[in-house]
Design brief:
Shape: elongated
Number of domains: 1
Helix content: 10-25%
Strand content: 25-35%
Largest sheet: 5 strands, antiparallel
Structural class: alpha+beta
Number of strands: 19
Radius of gyration: 31 Å
Length: 353
């Protein structure tokens, strides 16, 4: 007689200890994945910030360098309108300095030689001179730079060069009054019609730092911006228009020529240039600001937000050397970079620098 045996499968659950061990392992894995994600995100944020700082600094230098390259420019052959003090000049070789002092009325000293600056001060367009920093400018010690040049551009603003740094038409500004082409009884002051002015138009761009208050991710960032005020019809006032944010320092030094080589033998502050006397070089008398043949610009640019990768003690970013050679520590872990470049004032040179 065969006896049948029926096997029975025993089923059982996990114990509380096993469940807790499994949960702990899963939590460790989730925590590790979270840390990897956060580290990757922080690294990417730092890379983005570094790229933004680099882009801002180079853009600022490009804007300033382009204007400095135009400083003191005047079309080689032009026709000047007559005034009470001088006979009409046709196809006469003129210069920026002659135009601002002889063919135009009451052009301030700051705009007579193409380049002008303020040492540790702001430039006030309402007085056309340097003034102490106020609550809207700064920081203390930052400089101001003024660039002027001429253009006889007849193109519209989107293609031509008759606009200031705020993209306003200089053909409508007070300094260029009477230099537009007269059409019948009306004066055409806009470049949109492609009508050439009777005489080259003066373009004036004034650069300095202004205070900026930026809100990022619920936090308020107090910094400064490189700003500009031009002499166009809509911008010839005391207001400055922001160009590049996050510029913490703006320092300008001027390369001055002393001999017949017409090369910059030394770099001076704006105050030191203003204190220079006239120089007789090879029979030509050069006023102090006319002796400037190159401009050295230094900018300190910071990121708008902070990065934990560069945070040092007490939540501060690592210190770096600023434009004055001093140690500079930006707040909140922000990244910072110094940008410095020398630009030639080409219209003051007869040979390369």
């Amino acid at each position: 007689m065969r006896t049948a045996f029926h096997s029975q499968r025993t089923e059982r659950g996990v114990t509380l200890v096993e469940l807790m061990v499994a949960m702990a392992i899963n939590l460790v894995l989730v925590l590790a994945a979270t840390l990897l994600y956060l580290n990757g995100r922080t690294a990417q944020k730092a890379v983005d910030e570094r790229g933004a700082v680099f882009e801002s600094g180079n853009l600022a230098l490009d804007l300033l360098g382009r204007d400095i390259g135009n400083a003191a420019f005047y079309p080689a052959v032009s026709v000047e309108p007559a005034n009470t003090a001088r006979a009409p000049g046709s196809n006469v070789l003129w210069s920026h300095d002659l135009a601002t002092t002889q063919s135009m009325t009451a052009v301030p000293t700051a705009y007579q030689h193409g380049v002008f600056g303020c040492d540790g001060q702001r430039f006030d367009p309402s007085t056309d001179g340097c003034a102490a920093h106020n609550t809207n400018s700064g920081p203390a010690g930052s400089d101001a730079l003024v660039v002027s040049y001429f253009t006889n551009d007849a193109f519209s603003l989107d293609r031509g060069q008759r606009a200031d740094c705020t993209f306003a038409d200089v053909g409508k500004s007070g300094y260029n009054s009477g230099r537009e082409r007269v059409a019948g009884s009306a004066v055409t002051t806009s470049g949109a019609l492609g009508v050439a002015p009777d005489a080259p138009l003066l373009v004036i761009n004034r650069y300095q730092l202004v205070k900026a208050r930026i809100q990022v991710d619920g936090a308020v960032i107090n910094t400064f911006s490189l700003a500009c005020s031009g002499n166009g019809a809509t911008s010839n006032n005391t207001g400055y228009q922001e160009l590049i944010r996050g510029v913490e320092q703006f320092e300008v030094r001027y390369g001055v020529m002393d001999d017949t080589t017409l090369r910059p033998r030394r770099y001076l502050t704006a105050s030191e240039v203003a204190a220079l006397g006239d120089a007789n070089i090879d029979g030509v008398v050069y006023q102090p600001w006319r002796r400037v043949v190159s401009v050295r610009v230094c900018l300190m640019v910071r990121s708008i937000s902070g990065s934990a990768l560069r945070t040092g003690t007490n939540g501060q970013a690592s210190a770096t050397t600023d434009c004055n050679g001093s140690s500079y520590t930006p707040p909140g872990g922000a990244q910072v970079r110094r940008f410095e470049q020398v630009f030639s004032v080409k219209n003051r040179q007869t040979q390369s620098v």
